[in-house]
Design brief:
With 474 residues, the chain is α/β, with parallel strands linked by helices. It has three domains: 5-283, Rossmann fold; 323-415, Cysteine-tRNA ligase, C-terminal anti-codon recognition domain (Four Helix Bundle (Hemerythrin (Met), subunit A), Up-down Bundle), CATH 1.20.120.1910; 419-473, no CATH class. The chain is built from 16 helices and 16 strands. The strands form five sheets. It has a five-stranded parallel sheet, with helices on both faces. β3 (24-29), α1 and β4 form a beta-alpha-beta unit. α10 (324-342) crosses α14 (407-417), α11 runs parallel beside α13 (389-403) and α15 (423-441) runs antiparallel to α16. The protein is elongated and about 80 Å long. The structure holds zinc ion.
């Protein structure tokens, strides 16, 4: 296996990755809280995670990825204070909490898919796992890591030797001051850093979703979700835990506290965090008026994959500045790439030696702290390489296993839309594609193959893509 490295937030350095089981990787991703749209900064995080996962697969690992959907229990401050996000969303839109969850889950995945991301193997809404949350809270109480106060169950952070696991000693002091100065104080907490595992008494008497528990009717804290859902599907150990840098404190810090207290051993060795997307006025957030989403970009005429290219051109650990000018530059690059690929002829033999050389360079880039910008430079180099078109096309397809820019699909569409295709030929091809679809539907694969060959004999290649059948000249 090739050497694979990325920045491990837990160690505060770029580290070589070694999963617990040779060749296999269990990854957990914190999913969205589905009370509002995911803005393009949130989607940047998921694009970089997708690049990480596909890079691991390119390097030969078998990856299983689990993600939660927070549809209960996330208060507007990550430190258990403020309003309940789901209830606030329901009130704002005059809908039930479950209607809000359904609507924004669908909206999230529409944008998640549009930018070329592969869906996680397991996607689990928090409301599916209430009995697992209760069980974990019971065990934490039995083990003495939790206490009941004022009707709520809290995690007792003073029971841990090192609570601020992600922080250097300087950062710890700053965090302690920050926590002390937190505006809203919960008098039930023994320590300022303690956090809620289960709410029964809160100021949200109108909480819509409530469940029976040994401590009374209530609902789970936010952090407990990720610990339980990861253990439910990945067992007692995970190899990589992903999120945005916002999640490091308190969310991931609390996840580690309760998971390791519950398990009695180390839980996850590698933590992968991607940085913020900023606009000219600062960090992108949902509180600053209209939410800029991938769907909004699409309405403005941008291909979602242009946004993906824009993200991949920058390193995941650096803040990225969004502006329409920057996005236009990415669009120009994307269109040039598509045009270049559309000009390649599809005949000739792939030069396996050249292909392997470029694939090795590409793998080096993505294995070196996920250097996606370098990976794209290698794509440009491959397009200019002193080799035939068949080899270049094979490389574009190979790199697209990670980049997911669908350059060949878009190139074929471009060839289709190009002037010079006469109407009669076009009608004939479309009719043949329709006949082939009918044959496939009737499981008559011999006829379907015959139609493909018939087209090929006229110099037309057809290809099945996610967007449907596309054709190009052979
Ligand atoms: Zn989480």
């Amino acid at each position: 296996m090739n050497r694979f490295t990325f920045f491990n937030t837990l160690k505060r350095e770029v580290e070589e990755f070694h999963p617990r089981e040779e060749g296999k990787v269990g990854i957990y991703t914190c999913g969205p809280t589905v009370y509002h749209f995911a803005h393009i900064g949130n989607i940047r995080t998921y694009i970089m995670q997708d690049a990480l996962i596909k890079s691991l697969e390119y390097a030969g690992y078998e990856v299983k990825r689990v993600m939660n959907i927070t549809d209960v229990g996330h208060l507007s401050s990550d430190a258990d204070t403020g309003e309940d996000k789901m209830v606030a969303g329901a009130k704002r839109e005059n809908k039930t909490v479950m209607e809000i969850a359904k609507f924004y889950t669908d909206a999230f995945f529409k944008d998640f898919d549009a930018v070329g991301n592969k869906r996680p193997d397991v996607i689990e809404p928090a409301t599916n796992c209430i009995s697992e949350f209760i069980h974990m809270v019971e065990v934490l109480l039995e083990k003495g890591y939790a206490y009941v106060a004022g009707g709520n169950v809290y995690f007792d952070t003073s029971k841990l030797e090192d609570y601020y696991v992600f922080s250097s000693s300087v950062e710890k002091e700053a965090l302690e001051v920050g926590v002390r100065d937190d505006v809203e104080e919960d008098v039930n907490k023994k320590n300022k850093t303690d956090f809620v595992l289960w709410f029964t008494k809160s100021k949200f008497e109108d909480q819509a979703l409530k469940w029976e528990s040994p401590w009374g009717v209530g609902y789970p804290g936010w952090h407990i979700e990720c610990s339980c859902i990861s253990m439910k599907h990945l067992g007692e150990y995970i190899d990589i835990h992903c999120g945005g840098v916002d999640n490091i404190f308190p969310h991931h810090t609390n996840e580690i506290a309760q998971s390791e207290a519950y398990l009695g051993h180390e839980w996850c060795k590698y933590w992968f965090h991607s940085n913020h997307l900023n606009d000219q006025s600062g960090k992108m957030s949902k509180s600053k008026g209209a939410i800029l989403t991938v769907s909004v970009l699409q309405e403005k005429g941008y291909d979602p994959l242009v946004y993906r290219l824009f993200c991949l051109q920058s390193h995941y650990r650096k803040p990225l500045v969004f502006s329409y000018e920057n996005l236009d530059n990415a669009a120009a690059s994307y269109n040039k790439l598509v045009k270049r690929v559309s000009e390649f002829k599809k005949d000739g033999e792939v030069d396996e030696k050249v292909k392997a050389d470029y694939e090795a360079k590409f793998l080096d880039a993505i294995s070196n702290d996920l250097n996606t910008a370098m990976a794209i430079t290698i794509l440009y180099d491959a397009l200019k390489a002193d080799t035939n078109d068949a080899t270049k096309l094979a490389l574009v397809e190979s790199f697209d296993r990670v980049l997911s820019l669908d350059l060949t699909g878009h190139a074929n569409a471009l060839a289709y839309a190009a002037p010079g295709v006469d109407a009669e030929l076009e009608a004939y091809i479309q009719e043949a594609i329709a006949r082939r679809a009918e044959a496939k539907k009737a499981k008559d694969f011999a006829t379907a193959d015959a139609i493909r060959d018939e087209l090929l004999s006229k110099g037309i290649v057809i290809k099945d893509t996610r967007e449907g059948v596309v054709w190009s000249r052979a």
